[in-house]
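Appendix B. One record, verbatim.
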Amino acid sequence: MNTAKKVRLGKILGASSQRAVIVPIDHGLTVGPLTGIESTARIARWIGHPGVDAVVAHKGILSRLADQGALDRKGVILHLNGMSSLSDSVDDKEWLTSIETALLLGADAVSLQVNFNGRNDRANWKMLGQVVDGAARYGLPVLTMIYDKVGEEPQRLHRIKQLMRTAVELGTDALKIGMSERPELLREALEDVQGDALVFVAGGELTGDEPLLEHVSNALRAGARGVCIGRNIFVKKSPALLLERLSKLVHGEPARGEREVALASIRR
């Protein structure tokens, strides 16, 4: 990994844990204004929490949040592709934003989502290969979000292992995958790939805080380098409480900035 990538990843990963709590808020392009991300003003109410290490968003939301100072001291990951759920082919994500735009916006990394439905493999891999080539020219890390919609376990385990390996072969630096409710399957899925790419787990279907935290704990023990969770955070009435617990679980210490605040209060 070159120096530029190391520097940029250092803005996303915790210095001591080398893990991260990444919060994607790119859902608006796909499904519209969900609760918690109805507007940049609403996002700004909670996104500044020190438990958020990095944010994934499309260019329009990133620029507006940056204008409000809501992304200060956050890692910034620009999402490059997408497709509205109003389309009859929502799984066929189109490349919508250039690598150069990521640089102009000061992004620390770029991301793309590839949904595999058995008919779009060729387009997905071509897009990922081109994104990696373009990002490599500027030392930008690439996060690839893989969602496989074909088959059931154990076939899906074999497929996700092959899909992750293909993404690594094409040069991705990090992966986001779904979180299996069976810890042993997640351990097997990550066994071979965790040494070649940073792996973050998604939040999955909406659930309560306790089941979510248990799944995250299992994922960390399996070798995941953190989480990339959106809806299970921002739809909550109090995202701050969950973010605080997630950050402590992922990093094994208070969220960034909380320790300094605590020390300052002791000195007073």
